[in-house]
Amino acid sequence: MVSEVKVGARNPARIKNLLVKELVENWQGLQSFVVVCPVGLDVITSNQLRAALHAKKIKMMVVRNSLARLALAELDMAVAAELLDTPSAICYGGESVVDVAREMVDFARKVDVFSVRGAFVEGQVFSVEQVRKLATMPNKAELSAQIVCLVLSPGRGIASALLSPAGRIAGAVEALVEKLGSQAHPADASESATAESTESTEPAESQDATAEKQDATESASDSATDQQQSSDQQ
Question: Residue 56: inside a domain, yes or no?
Answer without folding.
Answer: yes
